[in-house]
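WP5 quarterly update. Target: Chemotaxis protein. Source organism: Actinomadura namibiensis. Length: 364 aa.
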Amino acid sequence: MDAVTLSELRKPRAFPAVSVLMPTSRRAPENRQDPIRLRNLLAEVRRRLQEDTRVPAAAADQVVRGLEEAAGEVDLRHAEDGLVLFAAPDGERHAFTVDQKVDERVVVDTTFATRDLVAAFVRSPRYWLLSLSEDCFRLWDGQAGTLAEHRDDGFPLRPAPIDEEVGGRLSRRGVPHGDGRQRNHMKQVVAALENVLKHDRRPVVVAGATRHQAFFEEAAGPDITIAGRVDGSYEGASANRLLELVRPVLQSYEDLREVAVLTELEAARGLRRYASGVNEVKRLVDEGRGEHLVVERGYYAPAVATGGELIPVEGRLGALRGADVVDDVVDHVIETTLEYGGEVTFVSDGFLVDHNRIALVVRF
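Structure tokens (predicted):
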């Protein structure tokens, strides 16, 4: 899953665009129930489409068939924590597994229910690991539990040594590795890193000797968010070894980030650039004013379309029926925020108890 794919999935589809979401189990014997639960959900999809007078029988059959084919692409014996299936009347289908639990539900709408994919994308650690050593600077691409060296955009970077020529060959002898040389090298590293961050902004973990880290921080500008540090030189270390070192650093960063979200919301409240509650948040987001949306992971709200507006109503997700019913207005708010270039952060349930489970930092 990447940002481009997620952006494409958020675009409107012809009705009915159907989403099936189901928690899955990683281990036996619990995962033996997953195929049964999936069959039941697909049966619910068929029943709902057949009962909906807006859906032609041929379109209903095509969507159900698409979901069945998408489900066939997933081996439930080796699933993660959640399954997400999408299908639309034109034959489009998608299947995803995510490494976090999802709430079981069927959503019938003109868009796919992407909030769990967004949550997985946003909440899964995505970071850059910059490894500093005396003569080589490497950049590693960290996503969830994987780490791969980034061999592009000038990385790995090996600055040309400032050596004297001896007998037509370059020699390292006779030239000290002074602070001035290290500062020049770090400027090159920062320039290359900033170029990467222009098209893929993530927090950066810096690994290296204390001396090298100090030179890097001196050269780094405000566009580089340092998530944490790993002390020591790890040139030549394996990806698995680096993952072990980075994991506690990232956990501390995520814990602090949730606390920082509350601080940001309180500051926005003081500046009168704050809103909470799904009604007010939705209104501002629809106006393109959402800068940073913060949502509890398990918060959903059905709504009814009235007079061109979505009005949230009380009721269990998926329980309401009718042409004017939208299964989840929170999903609409999330997608609209992203469409206008805003940021979305998911937090643990209960974390926004004083903010009505959803809050917004407003642009203006």
